[in-house]
Known about the structure:
Blueprint: E1 5-6, E2 19-23, H1 30-40, E3 45-46, E4 50-51, E5 66-67, H2 70-78, E6 82-88, E7 91-96, H3 97-105, E8 110-113, H4 116-125, E9 130-135, H5 139-149, H6 154-169, E10 176-179, H7 183-193
Parallel strand pairs: 2-8, 2-9, 3-8, 4-5, 9-10
Antiparallel strand pairs: 1-10, 4-7, 6-7
Helix pairs in contact: 1-7
The structure holds adenosine-5'-diphosphate and guanosine-5'-monophosphate.
Guanosine-5'-monophosphate binds next to strand 6, strand 7 and helix 4.
Amino acid sequence: MAATSRGTTPVPPDARPRLTVLSGPSGVGKSTVVAHMRKEHPEVWLSVSATTRKPRPGEKHGVHYFFVSDEEMDKLIANSELLEWAEFAGNRYGTPRGAVLERLEAGEPVLLEIDLQGARLVRESMSEAQLVFLAPPSWEELVRRLTGRGTEEPVVIERRLAAAKIELAAEAEFDTTLVNTSVEDVARELLALMKVV
Ligand code: ADP
Ligand code: 5GP
């Protein structure tokens, strides 16, 4: 077992998990790991979520998220255009269904980076999905990363840390945990779990 993984469920060598869900508390490094992985393996397809959150500096519509209004999100939900959606720390987030299903039908590996509630919903509707939990090396380091990112005001950080306590308590629900000590190591392990390398 690799140094940063715990509780890994062995995957038979011929089984190709087609849908992988990456979850973990805000600030643990999910986006950083995924960006690193896709720099070297651009063929890994990452679903772009819709969100009612406002863009952070540098975030682009259609690349990092589809930034939508509350009314647009209402419509996406009412029209069943989302595979799953959840409210997280005061905003709504959802996975567009069509694009994910197209990729899966084409037999391509698909990655979703979503919160715990979304991961649970995906597990219910797609039992073949593999759920990966990204954990921080320690609580103190998680607080340091979330605060150090400098993208949220203190009240939002508090909200996200409250959610983080709930998410960390749910680690055992996931098939695999990767501890984000080294971005490079975690990216490599995630690629191996997705059977990309
Ligand atoms: P998330 O997407 O899970 O909310 P980010 O990817 O935005 O988290 O990472 C939060 C902060 O932690 C960023 O400033 C990022 O540079 C930093 N970070 C991510 N992974 C590591 C790591 N392995 N070691 C140190 N800092 C990290
Ligand atoms: P952020 O605002 O930091 O980009 O994301 C906040 C949380 O929302 C993170 O845990 C992220 O994984 C999650 N998230 C992003 N997109 C989706 C989605 O489509 N569905 C769900 N359920 N969560 C999402």
